[in-house]
Amino acid sequence: MTATYREQGDIAVITLNNPPVNGLGYDTRKGIVEGILQANENAAIRAIILAGEGKGFSGGADIREFNTPKALQEPWLQTVIQIVENSGKPVIAAIHGVAMGGGLELALGCHYRVAVAGAQIALPEVKLGILPGAGGTQRLPRILGLETALNMIVSGNPVMSEKLAGTKLFDHMITGELMAGAMDFARKVADVRPLPKVRDISITYPNADGYLQFARNTVRTVAGPFPAPLKCVDAVAAAVNKKFDDGLKVERDLFLELVQTSESKALRHAFFGERAASKIPDVPADTPLRTIRSAAVIGAGTMGGGIAMNFANAGIPVKVLEVKQEALDKGMNILRKNYENSMKKGKLTQEQLEKRLSLISGTMSYDDIGQADIVIEAVFEDMSVKEVVFKKLDEVMKPGAILASNTSTLDIDKIAAFTKRPQDVIGTHFFSPANVMKLLEIVRGEKTAKDVLATTMALAKTIRKTGVVSGVCDGFIGNRMVEQYIRQAGFLLEEGCLPEQVDKAIEKFGFAMGPFRMSDLAGNDIGWYIRKRRYVEKPEVTYSKVADLLCEKGRFGQKTSAGWYDYKPNDRKAYPSDEVNQMIIAHSKDLGIEHRKISDQEIIERLVYALVNEGALILEEGIAMKASDIDMVYLTGYGFPLFRGGPMFYADTIGLSNVLMAINRYGKGRHPEAWVPAPLLVKLAAESQAFN
């Protein structure tokens, strides 16, 4: 049973028991209703406690039931809350851990609420592009006041229970054991009549309409393309200006409207995609994990230092190895400055800074890292350099240590072959800055052991990354796809665009940064180095030579104050460069290409559909396990607009037949070899199916 009933003297206790967060699935909802009715039928019962088993009261809806018939099966959550509210005997919500979403709405439907400190209280539905649909927008303003409730609903952020102590939300804060305190409270209020209902509380706020208009103006400026935050204001306005039941109807109508928006569908896709990414079909959930109590990082550069910070932030001691004292000192100083900057911004205390720095130590000896449970190399992206490192690691690392490479493109199987323990080798591709970016591409080699993969996936969660598994290929998921994106950007320059137009068009579409600003930030020399390798390994693949001409001028990006754009000292703003623009125009003339006017729509389609087509190939080859994994890579690592759900989800919304039609059209242009439709895309389009 996911909701159990027991009687303790004259108090009935209904316990939600639906791990991991006591989600309010059908069986749980049904159990609550049955428990309330049973308690009301027993004359000996004076009060009812509603509590949660395990780590929390309730995290809200049971996501396992989303898009299934059970999600809509009576009793719905509104029905449950109505039965709780109309109980003839007082119902007390005993809250610990979490009371979020529907869990908080259920608690608001109870007559009383008691809580312990440390519980997270939230209505986070806005983060899924919707709003609370079971009375949350109507009851929370009545019990917390207009401003506090509106801030919580619009932001979706949790508030700790102790910060809400003293408000009407909690009738009593329990300092000892939750159930004992709840029992004492239940007996004190057992005979109080009439039973208090949140719906009966009046909202009083001077000039509420003026405040709500101010709130709308404020929310409009920060909501961007997402409609849900403004609709939250409308729902709360109904709580202020309408009778309770009329306000409930407004809330429900707005909820149903938002559920159908593409933005909400994209956010929900991302929500489920992140959870699905951790599920690997041939690796059982109960696979025993290797213990990770200590780590080592090879290389104290920007990437190595950022990786080390991830471990320290998670409380895991880490040693950073460099071959020269000067490089080690420089890297450790940068680490300290990064933490000091976080402290200046109020993100860390002095104590936290010192604690994290104490977990990071430097060394120039491989012997000092031999006992680490995992070692991650973050050295120069060259196979001969990797070979030297991994042969040394094979010598010094203890048996069972995980040997990981931060390579962004190289063959993990070849790297693993440099060792006598290929089963212990895995790719961990962090994204720069590694201490900030959420994505961790986890590359599974042919011989990577299942427990190594499972352990690395669990470690990703520990260091607060979104781990996505990729198979072995040149560039894995993200960089293999972005190469096609960058190729199209280069071709667009030859045909008539300048960097600023391309960047502005794709940024207007929603990307955090266009391809040329991105290249300037990452370093144009990195792409140049990779292209030189491609020219030898894949001579059949065509590239625009404009980027090579740029690098021959030494314009490597922000680090040289000159790339596709010009930069000023201590100013990261990209200024269009006359020198670069003239170089582009001259190169086109040398190729005999007359510049033409190119629409923003063409720019967007060519860049995005290049990603989609390569993503379809990656899916077909089994490099990615599922389309949502590709979307998670692009949402968390490449700045793809969240409200569009990732390249594969976006293609689904456009319609794969429409995407294929555009690809075939662009295939008639100057570079038909870059637009060969992926067989999977052709197949799905013909069958009117989708990737996801």
**Major sheet attributes:** 8 strands, mixed
User: Helix count?
Assistant: 27
Q: Could you list the spans in which at least 5 consecutive residues all have pLDDT below 50?
A: none
Helical content class: 40-55%
Number of strands: 19
Looking at the structure, what is the overall shape? globular
Q: State the end-to-end CA separation.
A: 33 Å
Q: Provide the spatial order of strands within the biggest beta sheet.
A: 12-11-10-13-14-15-16-17
Q: How confident is the prediction overall: mean pLDDT?
A: 96
Structural class designation: alpha/beta
Radius of gyration: 29 Å
Percentage of residues in strands: 5-15%
